[in-house]
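Customer escalation, tier 2.

The customer says the design service returned an amino acid string that "doesn't look like it belongs to this structure." They asked us to rerun it and document both sides in this ticket. The original structure tokens are below, unchanged.
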């Protein structure tokens, strides 16, 4: 599936034909810029969202009708867009272990408190801060994109990974995967992968194969001890092993905005589709 685009509801993703060259993918900042009397500027950032534009030529009827069904809401959205440009299928908020995000994307703690700390695993590449998870109860969990989940394909092999550092050693930590069907109903949990956390940054991974009826998965971290932990650089990607950390956004929740179309020769269609991250 490398280099391929997919779009549609989780559990019913359809492959797109290759779009024309020069497709546009923009990370748009939302918020405001304010200027003081001194001329100094400050910026409020409420978030960033992707805007994506693709052009297609000579689409056959089946491919065009699928896009049309999404755009007209015959198949209600938002939909998932699997992008070959970004391998990490977690949202940007979850990949950076951000618990401040809205209810849908990001990291969610079942118990305890959190704060940003300037401590980053250098092996993960660029970065500065991690999330310190304290005052935890036994068996509390931290889950990534737990509301919307991460889309999977039937029998797809995938790998979850996260960097963890403890204030003291934890012998009984683990990485977990929960599976859900296309309607968001819980199906089962994969066998956890043990993670013996130490006082130094280390990357922990879990590799599993999706069941045939699973549409999404949720990556999590749990430990029976109440030791304070620092967590950074989460990732969920296709494949049998973890690769270099990516900032996320590879399975964006999108709205199909516009679909201007022409027919150069019946029944083939030329069209441009504009997708807005939900």
């Amino acid at each position: 599936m490398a280099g391929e685009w997919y779009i549609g509801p989780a559990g019913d993703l359809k492959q797109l034909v290759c779009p024309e060259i020069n497709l546009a993918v923009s990370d748009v900042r939302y918020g405001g810029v304010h200027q003081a009397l001194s001329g100094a500027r400050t910026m409020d950032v409420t978030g960033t969202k992707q805007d994506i534009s693709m052009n297609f030529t000579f689409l056959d009827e089946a491919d065009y009708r699928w896009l049309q069904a999404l755009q007209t809401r015959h198949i209600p959205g938002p939909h998932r867009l699997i992008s070959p440009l970004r391998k990490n299928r977690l949202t940007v908020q979850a990949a950076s272990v951000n618990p401040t995000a809205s209810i849908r994307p990001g990291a969610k703690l079942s118990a305890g408190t959190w704060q940003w700390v300037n401590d980053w695993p250098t092996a993960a590449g660029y970065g500065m801060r991690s999330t310190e998870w304290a005052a935890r109860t036994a068996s509390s969990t931290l889950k990534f994109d737990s509301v919307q989940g991460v889309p999977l394909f039937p029998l797809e092999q995938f790998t979850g990974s996260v960097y963890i550092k403890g204030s003291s050693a934890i012998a009984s930590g683990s990485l977990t995967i929960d599976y859900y069907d296309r309607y968001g109903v819980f199906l089962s949990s994969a066998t956890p992968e043990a993670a013996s956390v130490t006082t130094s940054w280390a990357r922990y991974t879990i590799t599993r194969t999706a069941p045939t009826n699973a549409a999404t998965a949720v990556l999590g971290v749990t430990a029976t001890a109440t030791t304070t932990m620092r967590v950074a650089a989460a990732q969920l990607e296709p494949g049998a092993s973890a690769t270099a950390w990516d900032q996320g956004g590879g399975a964006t929740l999108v709205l199909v905005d516009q679909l201007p179309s022409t027919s150069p020769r019946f029944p083939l269609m030329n069209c441009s589709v504009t997708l807005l991250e939900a």
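Tier 2 assessment: The sequence is consistent with the input. The mean pLDDT is 93. The first helix runs from residue 61 to 71. Sent an explanation to the customer and offered a walkthrough call.
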